[in-house]
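May I ask for a protein sequence together with how it folds?
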Amino acid sequence: MNNVLSYAGLVMSIAILISVLIIILFAHPVENFINKHPSPQILGLSFQFLIGFMLFAEATHL
């Protein structure tokens, strides 16, 4: 059982490292796109605001 947990932890660590590398690889092209087209930036900020409001509403039982 201990080997299974160790293997699962190793797989998760590798997945996190791959994800970070992908984010680093695509950060500059996404930055260039957002600087040229501000509409997705506004859309993303609106989406984050909506999620934050919904979390607040759920936490305060509104």
The mean pLDDT is 92.
